Amino acid sequence: MRPSRGAPAGEGGFERVDLAGRCIDLQEIDVRKWMMRSRRLFWSCLAVALVLAACATSPLGRRQLLMQSPTEMAAMGIAAFDEMKSTMPRSTNADQRRLVQCVADAITSVLTPEDMGVVVVQGWETELFADDSANAFALPGGRMGVHTGLLNVATTPDQLAAVMGHEVGHVLARHGNERVSQQVAAQGLLVGASIFTGTETPQSQQLMAALGAGAQLGLMKFSRDHESEADHIGLRLMARAGFDPREAVTLWQNMSQAASGQRPPEILSTHPSGTTRITRLRAAMPEALQLYEAARAAGRRPNCR
Fold it and tell me: Terminus-to-terminus CA distance in the chain, angstroms?
């Protein structure tokens, strides 16, 4: 459309045009339309991406957001574990190493293709790290680590099996993939909000801070869901391997005592409280005891010590 004669030039070199007797700044039209289109496009693309990614379910039936491939996650886990082995001291206590390996082998030996699903594990590897903290972990790709400090809290092979079954449960349920995906999605939301609200004014900075806190609490909630799922899966695994599932309750009682009341409130914690955890384990115990009795009847009696 040609600008009408005599129409004054708008700011930035854009002409003002006469549409049915009204003068409208072309720059205002272009910017307004661009912003509207950009916002719709960003949120539409993000929504589509999240819907397409959230088509998986955990072993317990919970919907999951998974944006990484199983192969990618396995490679990440193996690389991280290799780095840990090169930087963290490993225990030289032969008896403790033998105990940890025995329990790990017993747990992983009962895994079926149905348990594994699409998880990529070429082989399980377990390491005992010389660290006084009561901790253990499992990474995508089938890599497990136990800290020597855990053996001061998990005082029996059955209690250690509760921890290691729990950690294997994280791998089977693809919680690592989910946490990575949640971080990516949360960062996308924050970036999008910063683009379309700006961060220059105190009000917009407060909004971004609120969004950040909300995203963090959301991720924590998912983390507590992960821990509860891993508890349930781990309870089944230890029972199927022939370990007494009732020892899982004793383990978490020991954990609560070792914490000495230092835990933050559950809403701000990435783990369920000890009381919540024990209550849920007891609720799942009847099924676990059936699996335990069946395993013992089938000759599964791990001799780990």
Answer: 86
What whole-number distance in Å separates Cα of residue 288 and Cα of residue 224? 21
231 is catalytic: yes
- Active-site hit among 127, 158, 225, 231: 231
φ/ψ of 154, rounded to 5, equals: -85, 90
131 is catalytic: no
pTM for the complete prediction? Answer: 0.73
pLDDT in tens, 37-86: 555 554 455 555 554 445 689 999 998 989 889 999 999 999 999 999 99
Taking the C-alpha atoms of residue 9 and residue 276, their distance in angstroms, rounded to an integer, is 69
What pLDDT is attached to residue 28? Answer: 46
Q: 167, 225, 244, 247: which one is catalytic? A: 167
CA distances from residue 32 to 27, 39, 282 in whole angstroms, order as listed: 8, 11, 59
